[in-house]
Structure formats: C-alpha cells, structure tokens
Amino acid sequence: MTRNTRRRIAQKSGIYLAITLITIVLVFPFVWMVCTALKDRTEMFSAVPTFLPKRVTFENFRSMWYDYKFFNYLRNSLLVACSTTLVSLLFSTFMAYGISRFRFRGRTVVFDLLILTQMFPTPLLILTIYVTFAKLGLIDSHLGLVISYCTFAIPFATMMLKSSFDGLPVELEEAASIDGSGVLGTIFRIVLPISAPAIVAMGLFCFILAWQEFMMALTLIRTTEMRTLPVGIQMMVGFRDIMWGPLMAGTTVVTLPVVVLFIFFQKYLVTGMTMGAVKG
To answer: What percent of the chain has pLDDT over 90?
Structure first.
C-alpha cells in the first residue's frame, strides 16, 4: 500500500467519522424526545435517568389527543400549511417564469423588491401586519394566517424558481413555440415537468414554514379552536407545571411529518436547490 493510498484512506475515514458524529449529535434530541414520550411519569422523573423506556406506554399520546384537543390543532395546521403551499407555488411559479423569460420595464426593480422583503425579521413586521389585518377583519382567521405566511414564502420561492428557470435551455421553449404551443402550453408541458424538483423543493419549504411557525400564529389567532400546532403545544407549558409527557408526544407528532417529507423528497430537494446554480 502506497503512501498516497494510506493518506486517502485516512482522509475518507476522518470524513466518515466526522459525519457519523455530527449525525449522532443531530439525531440524538429527536430520539430522546420519542423515548421520553413513551415513558410513564414515574420513569420520566426518576432519580436515575434512562434512555430507553423500561415499559412502553402510550398514555402520553392518549392524553395529548383527548385532553389537549390535539386533533383541532392538527387540523388547523394542515389546513394552513397546505393552503400556504398551494397559493405560494401558484403565484411564485408564474411570477418567477415571467421575471426569467420576459423583458419588461421595471423587471430589475421587481426582483430587487423581492430581495428587500427578506431583509426584515418577522418580529419587526408583526405589528404592521396585526394593525392591517385588524382593520381588514382578518384577525383570528385562517385566511389571515395564510396571507401572512404567503408574504414570506412567495418572495423566497420566486427568487429560487427564477434562478431555476434561468438555467433551463430556451431552445426547448422555442421548439414548443414553433410547434404551435402557446405560453401556457409551454409552461405546463415543458417548463413545469423539467422544473419539478425545484418546485417540489419550494413546496416543501413553504409547507415547513407554515407548519412550524409560532410567533405569527400566536399573535393573529386568539381562540383555542383556531390555534395551530406550535401554539397548541406551547399551551402545555403551564405557569406552575410543564406537562412533559404530552408535550413530548405532541412534539413527536409535529416533527414526524416533516421528517417523512424530507426522507421521501430528499432527491428532489437536493436537485431542486442546486438547479440553476451552474448555467450552461
């Protein structure tokens, strides 16, 4: 074995070891959360902590579901997240394609304004959004929550999809135009199928944004029946006591859909985020 071979093996071993350690550090809190959700209260607060539950129990999940109205929170979050994803993709896809392919006056200004929207933190905008929505009667409504999420999701998704459309060969669209296809036909038959990974990636981003957002939901929603999952889980933290069992169970249920989506769409997510990064 030559010196260069030993050096390459040592480098790869170091990289694999570093990746393994980082993975363990990142996955450990999730595994601990799931294990805690499966423990009873006695084992959870025992003097000698245990990693794996000695006796698996689903009492925390039952309490989460029936005692804390978890189904209402889950339904509200699904409604808001899915609506935000569909509306954001609808607007951002066509807006990104228009900015990428058409030359019009103010095109650069529009794109610069999209970038400008990403410079302001959410806490700075909450007061303005609250006052505006109060005058429009959108407080304590899912519609107002969807609109507020779209104001953050659409600009980012538009910029990312615009970069993806810039990387597509114009010759494909010109060929479709020669064959008699209109603009909408070209978009639906050529552009969208090729850009599916980028669109899926942006859809996943929009869904996660609406699924896990807490501050805007806490500010705009007042009644318990309209609250989403992050706010509903926060209600398990009382003034004198924290319901750790139902809290861990609820957090597990909230995290699982995101983990499943990431695993299922991992290929599309990686491809979509890198499309348009290198232009031919």
So the answer is: 14
